[in-house]
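RECORD TYPE: protein structure
NAME: Nodulin-like domain-containing protein
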Amino acid sequence: MTEEAKESISTKRGLRRNEILPFTLEFLRGRWFALFASFLIMASSGSVYLFGTYSNEIKTTLGYDQTTINLLGFSKDVGANVGILTGLIAETTPTWFVLLLGAALNFGGYFMIWLAVTGKIAKPMVWQMCVYMAIGANSQNFANTVGVVTAVKNFPESRGSLIGLLKGYAGLSGAIITQVYLAVYGNDSKSLIFLIACLPTALSLIFIYTIRTMGPAKHPNEHRVFNQFLLLSIVLALLLMVKTLIERKITFSKGTNAVITTVLCLLLFASLYISFREALVVWNIKKQPPTAITIEQSKSQVVESSEETSTKPTSSEQVDEKIEKSCFLTVFDKPERGMDYTILQALTSIDMLILLVTTIFGLGASLTAVDNLGQIGESLGYDNRTVTTFVSIISIWNFFGRVFSGFVSEILMVKYKLPRPLMMTMVLLFSCIGYLLIAFPFPGALYIASVIIGITFGAQLPLIFAIISELFGLKYYATLFNCAQIASPLGSYIFKVKVTGAIYDTEALKDVAAIGLAAKQLTCIGSHCYRLSFIILASVSCFGALCSLILVMRTRKFYQSDIYQKFRENADTL
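PREDICTED:
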């Protein structure tokens, strides 16, 4: 029986009364409901994106200067990007513990900030506020690790599309939380901090036993289902984009925000319906009597497994082999690509080194461009409202970059056997166009550059995470993909502080000296302010693309093989 026939039959069958309770229990324990829970966890993990919204409240109520606020922002970035410990914890503890720990860190960090801002505790020292901020921001690593890693292990054959969806929801999470806050509290920044402390914590606790690794299972048409999830996320992103752009000219009432939030929640929970429907498909297929073909296939699988078992070494031989070779002794004895690497084997491999260098140059340049976009608009003479529109464009196109990089690279890899790193090469080359538009601007160039930078910025992380899972296996994926995240702030610091910031200050000093005024505040006006900086960013992105192309050549044969075959063989049959 074909997969299409199975699905056609299964979708026409409902549930008998005596099947409702067993199906409900299986659904709540199944991988489709776990995927829905992961979507909600990721959609609420955007506290780090909201720092600019409530930072002025901290500055005003606690009497901080801008330097102190920047220090808090740096603490946030450190907490959000240092996730190696999170990965190691996820490797050695059950998923529920990782979620519980992340919920505790989120609530502890942001609740202490809320207590300080509302005056319910004595004014903390600056270093204490930095610790609170780092702890709260670090909690998102726990949510990301649980959401991404468990979903990839449960749906390994759709990992590219899935990572794109999950990171897409994470990219929208700041706008989603903001919309909920406007509907519930109005325009009260202190309450936003309280909402950030409570909402992600509550969701993590609700789904604490739901999200877990269950392994792959065969499904009639998994890719079509993920296309439906994609459609829902696009509609959600368009709703937020339209609302954000209209809000630049019209102020929405609290009631209007409540209506918009209701529609938003309906779109989020529409994925629950899809998950329920697919779980029902699987349930009905399992009830079908086996055909002669499936019986014959089962017999052949049993014979094959018995032959494999007879050729495998005994457990005592495997123990002896493990005793003889520790992880330190096997560092340079690497397995084939796609097999499970140890953490040390992966971190010392040439493929990982190339990928990290690509991330430092590619993602570091993108972060620098995004963080400087507001000041770029100011230097080119745009007003504040237009600059805010640029930032909104970046965030929305960032989402589209995330989801489409996952889906498009999956199609190119599965259908045309093109290496996924090739998509990274194309993304980095495309980003150079955006940087050069800022270096050599013309009327309207910044709008185009915002779209290009937003897409290319969003596209990179899903590609990096998917490539790591494919080249180095899933056994230590939680730690390895958190290691890759460290490269981006390193590149951002180099290009943002040492390159872009230094060149901007130099150009501003030249402007001040030219008009003969004292430099009270360094402000540069004109296209020359960022010209050299963005020529450098375009150059380093080209270098990152070259590194990615080297990885393409190294992994070409690997991607021409059926890299998902082992997951199909190990998948639970229906």
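COMMENT: Residues 302-312, 314-324 have pLDDT under 50 and may be disordered.
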